[in-house]
Design brief:
The structure is a single chain. This protein has nine helices and 20 strands. The chain is an alpha+beta fold. The chain has two domains: 117 residues, Immunoglobulin-like; 256 residues, no CATH class. Strands 14, 15, 16, 17, 18, 19 and 20 form a seven-stranded antiparallel sheet that branches. It has a four-stranded antiparallel sheet with strand order 8-7-10-11, with no helix packed on it. Strands 3-6-9 form a three-stranded antiparallel sheet, with no helix packed on it. Helix 2 runs antiparallel to helix 4. It is elongated, with a radius of gyration of 31 Å.
Length: 406
């Protein structure tokens, strides 16, 4: 117990000196009384063994003070939280302060503190009356997708910056989202990395135009070791980016896990939505969609192969002029060794040019298109660039519904 000696005097009459002992508590240390939670260690190994703080949980800290009980309960304690954000602080510490009466401090880790995610925070405290005597401890705040390894997510994002065709929807129904980010990378690859890293870290990404990606909160608790996640066969960054973006747009509360027809329906990418997102997310200023007979069910009543070949020739010209083209088709158009989830569903691909029109003798058609019996062109889909060729007697009435140009 610390003691303070006070001297006082009286100018009335004889000088009177006396000593008075006053009890002042002394700060010894503080401790976190709430259990920490296990999450990814973010070393690139995928191991889940790191303890840290998680969001939507309340943490209580208790300062240890020596002194009388009455003195401790009335003592004012200054609590300071310092951290360095990888996205907002620019190598400078952000400082938050709170003052409590008594030794207990409560931190409710809500969305307003989302910038602390993925950071080591230093918490210190001192008695208000003794600012120079403080104690401090450090804690890690888990990324919002706390079970997903941050180093793996960053590495995968950087790979896709130079090779956007690595984006793979795999066994999910997120083909439209894959195409969306494929063309986003072609316009601004650094923006793609920001989206991927910030979504993983804070669970939210807000674009400069105000558009915000915020998935269903249950997605934050999914583990890469969960069977339902593993069945989708998606790499970490693809699932976080594609599924989060689609979940944010879903009226059916798509949660990133597809275990049945209803889940797949929630992930469907409708033309109007995808057209709008090419502007709001991918950042293209002029985007148009062309519905070639699309019905509400996602199928078409197009008639005549020749008119559709004319549309394809038109698409090829637009592609050569610098336009980004996303085609709505069905998986029957594409030979895929891994098959597809449902051959009757619509599918989005990115057109990559190299259109060839061939006749029955496998020669290039330079004149009338009535002689075309085969064709080939390149597309992006399913984590790679495919070349579709030697499709004999192709019938466009069953597999070419419309397209978006950006």
């Amino acid at each position: 117990m610390g003691k303070t000696t006070t001297k006082a005097s009286s100018r009335l009459g004889t000088l009177n000196l006396y000593n008075q002992s006053i009890s002042v508590p002394t700060l010894v240390n503080f401790e976190l009384t709430t259990d920490l939670t296990i999450g990814a260690n973010n070393k690139g190994t995928g191991v889940i063994d790191k303890k840290g703080l998680v969001f939507n949980k309340t943490y209580k800290f208790l300062a240890k003070l020596a002194g009388s009980k009455k003195g401790i309960e009335s003592t004012k304690i200054v609590w300071v939280i310092k951290y360095m954000s990888p996205s907002t602080s620019r190598n400078k510490f952000i400082t938050l302060k709170a003052i409590t009466v008594g030794p207990e401090f409560t931190l409710e880790l809500k969305d307003k503190y989302k910038d602390m995610a993925g950071c080591e925070i230093e918490i210190s405290c001192h008695m208000q009356a003794r600012p120079k005597k403080s104690v401090s401890n450090k804690y890690f705040v888990h990324n919002r997708f706390r079970y997903f390894d941050g180093k793996k997510v960053l590495t995968q994002a950087q790979q896709r910056m130079s090779k956007p065709w690595l984006i793979d929807q795999a066994q999910s129904s997120l083909c439209g989202m894959a195409c969306l980010y494929y063309i986003l990378i072609q316009r601004d690859k650094n923006l793609y990395q920001k989206v991927a890293v910030e979504l993983h870290r804070t669970g939210i990404y807000k674009f400069s135009n105000g558009y915000t990606i915020e998935p269903k909160s249950s997605m934050y608790d999914i583990k890469p070791t969960d069977n339902n996640y593993k069945n989708m066969k998606m790499e970490e960054v693809d699932w976080i980016v594609l599924a989060s973006t689609r979940s944010s747009e879903s009226n059916l509360r798509y949660d990133g896990i597809e275990t049945g027809s209803f889940d797949q329906l929630g992930a469907v990418n409708w033309m109007g939505m995808l057209t709008r997102m090419c502007q709001e997310v991918a950042g293209y200023s002029s985007v148009k969609s062309y519905d070639l007979g699309l019905l509400k069910t996602g199928f078409t009543l197009l008639t005549g192969m020749h008119s559709n070949l004319e549309k394809l020739i038109e698409i090829d010209k637009k592609y050569k002029s610098g336009k980004k083209i996303i085609i709505m088709t069905d998986p029957k158009l594409i030979y895929d060794n891994r098959g597809w989830r449902n051959p009757t569903t619509i599918h989005w691909v990115v057109y990559k040019g190299e259109l060839r029109l061939l006749n029955s003798a496998n020669n290039e058609v330079t004149g009338t298109i009535e002689n075309v019996t085969r064709l080939s062109f390149k597309i992006y889909t399913w984590g790679r660039i495919d070349k579709i060729d030697k499709i004999e007697n192709i019938n466009f009435t069953s597999n070419f519904y419309g397209y978006i140009e950006a």
